[in-house]
Predict the structure.
Amino acid sequence: MLLCAGLPVMMNAAPNPATTPEGRHSLAVAELHRVAGPALEKMNSSSETRWFVEDLQKSPERMADLMLSGPLEDPAKSLRILAALWKADPKGLQDRHEATTAAAVALIFAKAKWPEDKALDSYKLASAAGQRVADFPNALAEAKKSKSNIAVFVHGSDWNRPGEAVAKIWNDPRFPPGLGGKVVLVDMDRKENPTEADKALAKLNEKGNPPVRSIPAVALYDNEGRLVGYYSGGTEIDGAGGVLAATRKLLVTCRERDECWSSANGASGMMKAGRLAQGLDRMNLGLGPKDVYKPVLEAMRKADPEDKSGYIAKYTFSSEKLVDLAIDSAKNGDFTNADKELGKWDACSRLSPRQKQELQGARFALYQRWPEKKQDLKPVLEKMRDIDPASELGLAAARYIEMLSPKGKKGEPQASARRKGWSRNPGSNMTPVVLTDGAVPG
């Protein structure tokens, strides 16, 4: 040690072993001997398990899986289970994912005091049920190869505390087997303060980043990378019964969709169009983000060019276009033809309740500009309300009716009052419904 300006200066200080891969491996081996020395000695003394002790200590990855995944609460039992799994599936454990799964099963069974003879069954189920991958492109490649779906969990580890509680369940090794089918799992961490590596990963995941409005969220994509559905926010996930139940429900949605589409293969005409549409109905995404399901609509048009099923109207409905029609026609004084066009849409029996409400919003926009129809504004709002009183637009219509009522009326509603009610149709673009000049409900 030298003294420099009265301060001690260390020369040739030993580097921190935890800063290098080799150092971390040495520390892990030392820690294993500290907590499980007797168990290691016993296994090393037997020709049946000596190979396991040697292989374990030589592998930095397998040592990390065992020592960094949680405390060895019962070291002897954890090592016995892990040795049995390695012996039962030596080829499979060459895969990094399978090795990690084996370590997780060993730790969980030891901690929970579950019977050792059931560990192999749990490992096989976990291996078959779900594979965790680092990014969406790799998940999509694996899903195409294995004909699996992709479950995506979205959270914010450095700011969203409710999401981290859900993340513990998502990351539990018992989560994949609980899904009841093979699924590729992807974790997407929307950090508030991302590193450059986080930003690069986020860009890589863009095609699998679901259009959720709040997190935590869980979404499902099929093996073509198409969104099937999602639960956005803790309230929706809890309402579905938790993240496991929510993911299972999304898998059911996908299966029902595929069953509808499979049955369409043997049908024709309006029957074929109807079954294709019923598959879209199961997802409730419209044509999906960026019209990803537009080919399904085209198949419906081909099967049912006259739209006898009524489903083509449902999946080509656009409230924005109808509002534009109402406003533009009013500017040109062409009220009657616009009203007839809205009447045609009103006759479409397949429209969803939300679409029917949006249609009344377009009619309100027209009637508000049509002097002869001013007296019909309230009945239009009442119809919008009665379609679904508890919905956003139903509640907005009810509030507007109060504004029109004589009790609270102080002249006509102010056109400058801007209140927003947006479409909650998952995966769709948010669509305003005009009730006044420039005003929207909500």
Q: What stands out?
A: Confidence is low (pLDDT under 50) at residues 1-11, 408-442. Residues 44 and 151 are 42 Å apart (CA to CA). The first strand starts at residue 2 and ends at 4.
